[in-house]
Amino acid sequence: MADPLARPFLDTLATVIGRARQSNLESLPAAAGLLADVVGADGIVYVLGTGHSQLVGLDVNRRAGSLAPVQVIFDPMWGRSELVEGYGATLLTETTFTVRDCLVVISNSGVNPAPIEAALAARAAGTPVIAVTSTEISRAARPRHSSGKRLYELADIVLDNGSAGADVAIRVGSVGVGATSTLVASALIHETIVEAVYILAARGIELPVYRANSEDGGREHNARLRERYRGRLNTVA
User: Fold this and answer.
1) Can you tell me the distance from the alpha carbon of 81 to that of 78, in angstroms, rounded to the nearest whole number?
2) Dihedral sign of CA atoms 70, 73, 74, 79 in order
3) Domain layout of the chain by residue ranges
4) Per-residue pLDDT for 236 more than 70?
5) How far does CA 54 lie from the centroid of its chain?
6) Please, where are the H alpha helices in the chain?
7) What's the rounded mean pLDDT across residues 218-226?
8) What's the CA gap between 149 and 36, in Å, rounded?
9) Which residue of 18, 74, 101, 178 has the lowest C-beta tally within 10 Å?
10) Total Cβ atoms within 10 A of residue 62
């Protein structure tokens, strides 16, 4: 790098986040409104991602600054079986979707069977679906589920992460490095939660948001939230 102040990945990431912000001007408020409705109705926000997409769900699970009624549908295979039809249904064995809930499915390509099966199951139960995906990559990819569907086609709301091609931000000769999809997806989910909390506060609804355990009263507050949702949420690895 000739410019000692240049930070190629950070600069490119900022550009991709900016692009995602613009492309989701309507879908971000819609997703936040849905989350606020779900929490206000005492529903559960289910989150599923396989492979690296699972990191996005885990990042909002049982942590300070996130909503308490978030349930990650954990994939113990970390994406190694997401191409196997029927595996997505297996991940839902202990999950019962209701019309009060919503499902957030994170999949960059949006064509693999596991996330498709999760979205289909939610739709069958009348549960709204939010997809976090790359519409550009998904449209260019061949569907891998027998339904022939892509994730964005099954979603009520689509949050586009703006990634393209092979999901690499930087080219060094013939080598691509610096994936953006997971980081941008995480930013979109956190933005959705923040906006949902604003909506809940405006409605005068008690905010079921975890605090840092290091705060005065934080542990006690979090224990009360866990008790409130006891039996409805499972811990994940």
Assistant:
1) 8
2) negative
3) 39-228
4) no
5) 8
6) 8-23, 27-40, 54-58, 87-91, 113-124, 135-140, 151-154, 181-202, 218-228
7) 96
8) 28
9) 18
10) 17
Determine the Cα–Cα distance for residues 58 and 195; give it in Å rounded to an integer. Answer: 19
Place of tokens 């912000």: 21
Interacting residues of 35 by C-beta distance below 8 A, sequence separation 6+ = 45, 67, 102, 192, 193, 196
- Beta strand pairing call for 129-133 and 157-160: parallel
> Is residue 46 a contact partner of residue 174, using CB atoms and an 8 Å limit?
no
- Rounded to the nearest angstrom, the gap between the alpha carbon of residue 112 and the centroid of all alpha carbons in its chain is 16
Place of tokens 């989350």: 35
Q: What is the pLDDT of residues 96-126, one digit of tens each?
A: 999 999 999 999 999 999 999 999 999 999 9
Dist. CA 104–CA 57, nearest whole Å: 9
Kindly tell me the burial class for residue 136, based on how many C-beta atoms sit within 10 Å of its own C-beta (0-12, 13-18, 19 or more): middle
* CATH number for the segment(s) 39-228: 3.40.50.10490
Between 221 and 163, the more confident residue is 221
Q: Is the Cβ–Cβ distance between 159 and 132 less than 8 Å?
A: yes
Neighbours of 199 (CB within 10 A): 17
Evaluate whether 215 touches 222 at the Cβ level (below 8 Å): no
Tokens of 112: 């693999």
pLDDT band, residue 17 (cuts 50/70/90): very high
Provide the whole-model pTM.
0.94
